[in-house]
Amino acid sequence: MPTLETTKSADSSLDPTGPVEGSDLPDFTTDAYKDAYSRINAIVIEGEQEAHDNYMSLGTLLPDQAEELARLARMEIKHMKGFTACGNNLGVVADMPFAQEFFSPLRNNFQAALTEGKVVTCLLIQALLIEAFAISAYHIYIPVADPFARRITEGVVKDEYTHLNYGQVWLKAHLEESRAELEQANRENLPHVRRMLDRVAADAAVLHMEKEDLIEDFLIAYQDALTDIGFTPREIARMAAAALIG
Fold first, then answer.
1. What is the mean pLDDT of residues 34-47?
2. Which of 206, 199, 197 is nearest to 92 (CA)?
3. The whole model's pTM is what?
4. Are 125 and 185 in contact (CB under 8 A)?
5. Distances, alpha carbon 205 to alpha carbons 1, 100, 213, in Å
6. Where are the alpha helices (DSSP H) in 93-174?
7. Residue 179 C-beta-side C-alpha neighbours within 13 Å
8. DSSP 8-state code for residue 20
9. Is residue 162 predicted with pLDDT exceeding 50?
10. Residue 117 and residue 169: Cα distance in Å, rounded?
11. pLDDT of residue 158
12. How far is residue 136's CA from residue 168's CA, in Å, rounded to a whole number?
């Protein structure tokens, strides 16, 4: 499981009432910042809502895990409310239509897998890809966030490791019978994450979040999860290549 070292190292310099020492913080009051933030904030709000819905749906495929999945889903709603408050704090209206369309490729694939009863594919999409995507974004955002949003995001990112770990633990326990479906689901969905990162890059840059940092942090979290599940470095390298050729 990925460690919290990145978050912990940031924690030591975080002051919730002021900027991070030594950070190149953006001007949170400009129209350009608020315009970009309207889409970034919408993405995290929508991501948490979809995570809630996905975990509840997974409970129908894993009835023996329904209570735990419902607990994870409730955490996502708490996160969604926190990120909504972040937008309100800056006087920004989240661009929810943009965010809903942004997640549509992964949402459509999740729903198709759900209909077919493909637990492994659903877990890879939500509990690995989306959670690793969220963790990477939150890690890169925390040092350049406004004080209110920084405090909210600090709490959220710790919860997200719980969700990533849930998927790792289940898939690790079922690796042999799940391997082929995991590799196929990776081929079909990892390219969508790459395109999502490309699409958000310009707005993220306005918030002082660099695309290269987002990609690197995502790959670290995702590849660490695959390692914990039981894939070899060679297998992981082959799976990661799907992002380049998809």
1. 97
2. 206
3. 0.87
4. yes
5. 28, 21, 11
6. 96-102, 104-115, 119-123, 131-141, 147-173
7. 9
8. P
9. yes
10. 19
11. 78
12. 17
